[in-house]
Design goal:
single chain; about 210 residues; mainly beta; 3-methyladenine DNA Glycosylase, Chain A; nine-stranded antiparallel sheet; 3 helices; about 10% helix; about 30% strand; DNA-binding
Length: about 210
DNA sequence: AAGAAGATTCGCT
DNA sequence: GCGAATCTTCTTA
């Protein structure tokens, strides 16, 4: 039977820190099929994560590569914290930290399938098109009301921004080089749910 | 002090 | 497909 992913009657189990892998590669795969939830006032925004990118230790494209600074400090928190930064003047990127405290690494959330709060997301995004609400990291952040206020939040605390497991079986996960990078462009560090139309990037990367 | 680059998006051709 | 928008951070191109 087809699983209904549009119903608000959805079983969302809050992920605890002990549920998370303590490894950047494993975290990037693990997050595919999980749900990102942001409770803003009385409205719940939620979306199923369908695409991620790993920025592991030693990656010269990673923001932690040259050590800890005020901007990237959140990357050095325990696994399951949010690292949010602004790029190109107007876009926010949401990452989930993925290594033990003191080690800077994370996973970028690149695309998601909207579940709850779709009307609100449409307003934030300025478009009705479901497929475009969170397809791309900047769009995902805008749809989910993620900005610098979310930087450093613990996604495993009882806060408004959290991760959930639906209990559904994960679909097959594909891998490819990352998108939009010059450094380390050869590495296979992007993960996506195969065949999911909410995944971003060119078709050639989504086989 | 100034300039380039950047984990992107949107609108136009 | 291409280029502008937009602004913070890091480098000295």
């Amino acid at each position: 039977m087809e699983i209904d992913r549009t119903s608000v009657q959805r079983a969302l189990r809050r992920l605890r820190r002990t549920d998370l892998p303590i490894d950047t590669f494993a975290m990037a795969r693990f997050l595919i099929g999980k749900v990102l939830v942001h409770d803003v006032r009385t409205c719940r925004l939620s979306a199923r994560i369908v695409e991620s990118e790993a920025y592991p230790v030693g990656d010269s494209a990673g923001h932690a590569f040259r050590g800890k600074t005020p901007r990237n400090a959140s990357l050095f928190l325990e696994p399951g914290h949010a690292y949010v930064y602004r790029v190109y003047g107007s876009c926010f990127m949401l990452n989930v930290t993925s290594e033990p405290a003191g080690i800077g690494a994370g996973v970028l959330l690149r695309a998601a399938q909207p579940l709850d709060g779709i009307e609100r997301m449409q307003r934030y995004r300025g478009t009705e098109r479901l497929i475009d609400l969170a397809r791309g990291p900047g769009r995902l952040a805008e749809a989910m009301a993620i900005d610098l206020k979310c930087d450093g939040l613990d996604l495993c605390a009882r806060g408004s921004l959290w991760l959930a497991d639906t209990g559904e079986n994960a679909d097959p996960v594909g891998a490819s080089p990352r998108i939009g990078l010059n450094r380390e462009r050869h590495r296979i560090l992007r993960f996506y749910e195969r065949g999911n139309p909410y995944v971003s990037g060119p078709k050639s990367l989504n086989q």
